[in-house]
Amino acid sequence: MGTGDGDNFVYPARDETPPPPEPISRPRRLTVEEVPDEGDPENFSRFVEPYDNEELGRSLPGRPLRRGETLFHHMRARQEVDGTTKYFPFRDGEEWDLARWLSKNVSQTATEEYLALPIVSHRHRHYWMAYFRNKKTNLSFHNNRAFLQKVDQLPTGPDWTCKVVTAVGNRVDENDELMSKDLELWIRDPVECIKELMSDPAFREHMAYASERVYGTKEGTEESRIFDEMWTAEWWWKIQVSSRYCPIKNEY
Prior knowledge:
By secondary structure, the chain is an alpha+beta fold. The chain contains seven helices and five strands. Strand 2 and strand 3 (178-187) form a beta hairpin. InterPro entries: Plavaka.
């Protein structure tokens, strides 16, 4: 073997093997934790002091005097006498659902176009009844005008009345007089509206006839007083107390 310069060859140092890459972390699933709203009265504990207290001489207001028939029960009884269903003037529940959907979601022009479709059209009902034997496509109204006539037969509640109100502006005319304009004001008797709401069976479990004091603690401190509904206000409580001894005066 030779002893030349080749014997003194030095091999270059090898680089250290790099460490393996860190595994890619999987994205964490986001979770939403529901935290009760501290300011929401529905999340408070409710301790009720009712107005009814015989020891303090406070009898329960709104105590029933007699049993009667509400306006809605009277209308249903009249329908039974006339031999009509509760969906009158519509044929059945399916037609009632369609009428309610049209009234809420479809304009009068679109209603006219929908009722003109062959599948629901009065002009093609015999053809489509033969084609769709098991489908109720034969409606009792065939255009928008007939549909609105059906709607007009529904109970309307308290009557509307119109009053003309003259509004005076801040501009003057050629005679240097303030210009005015007559406006139509459509109104309904609020007492009759309240009577209709109070006679609706759907609101039976949500009506209150007596005032209450509601607290957020058992001690019933004034700092924990809760005011949310009208009957929890102090005004109603004071009027309820004073009305037992003297008539309520109209302050307005």
